[in-house]
Amino acid sequence: IFVPFGGFMALFIIGIVYWMSRERLSPKAELDLAIRNREFIVHYQPIVELETGICFGAEALVRWLRPDGTLVRPDLFIPIAEETGLIMPITNQVVEIVIAELKSLLVNERTLHIAINLCAEDITTGRILDFLDGKLQSTGIHREQIWLEITERGLVDIDAARVTLRRARQAGHAVAIDDFGTGYSSLQYLQGLPIDALKIDKSFVDTIGKDSATSSVILHIITMSQELGLLSTAEGVETEDQAAFLRARGVNFAQGWLFSRPLPAKEFIGFHKNNKETFGAAREIVTSAD
Ligand code: C2E
Ligand code: MG
Ligand code: MG
Ligand code: MG
């Protein structure tokens, strides 16, 4: 009778020790494990053309699906990944997931685009471009269908960034400045950068129709983007009034809960199908490479 009991005890203790060791891992070690176990998933938030309502594509947004079933938002782990030098393998996994999940959609729908978020280290080293190049080869997906989003915070080494962005555009990718207006970049800064588009941060979209002082800031951003010949996307659009304001002022694209929340791949494919039946196919948008 003691032998099986001993066996149970041993298993129980091993279980407890395993559980405690997992709980006590540092954030870096936990993320490291998540990368090795490929615990990341991607949701796609549709981006629509404001003038026509046509789906232009989607932004790929990473989430961490932990083994216990909890879904961790990127805001909670991307900064840790950046600080601990683990961002590049995460960006790479996002690229692999996007290709695996959306390859046939992108090959069949040439006017659809997917935007991928890059961090400072991706932009400084430029290695993401080699990775993308390798992964896109023989998929039939065009380089033009993959947009790259970079934040102003990502431009820590501006000379290295310039090299990477130029290479990205020569390969055919379009480059958008994400969360525009929340960083420090001045007009002067932007003028020298090889980019195609600005994403107007949600905080400015939120001011539409509210506070006239701050909503004049968004007008300046729109004008500036047009004067620089850039495409513009408004993020975090939640109301029809906001969409009407942005459309009337010539903002090209929008994303936000008004159109759709971020969706799993299958649901995004369904969204696109519906959208195409309602509004028709998108026209080709050519961005200006160097
Ligand atoms: P972001 O690129 O500015 O992404 C937009 C965020 O706004 C998303 O949050 C999205 O779910 C949320 N959002 C969109 N529309 C609305 C709306 O109408 N109302 C509200 N309240 N929120 C809206 P999410 O997915 O939590 O992403 C947060 C940030 O994490 C992203 O900001 C991006 O900077 C970063 N991120 C996400 N995925 C990746 C990734 O794969 N790599 C990197 N480096 N960063 C990522
Ligand atoms: Mg983004
Ligand atoms: Mg934002
Ligand atoms: Mg953004």
TrEMBL record:
Sorted UniProt keywords: c-di-GMP, Cell membrane, Hydrolase, Membrane, Transmembrane, Transmembrane helix
UniProt entry tagged with the keyword Hydrolase: yes
Membrane topology, as annotated: Multi-pass membrane protein
EC assignment: 3.1.4.52
Localization annotation: Cell membrane
Location of the EAL domain: 24-276
UniProt keyword annotation of Metal-binding present: no
Reactions mediated catalytically: 3',3'-c-di-GMP + H2O = 5'-phosphoguanylyl(3'->5')guanosine + H(+)
Catalytic class of the enzyme: hydrolase
Transmembrane domains' residue ranges: 1-20
Protein name: cyclic-guanylate-specific phosphodiesterase
Natural source organism: Pararhizobium capsulatum DSM 1112
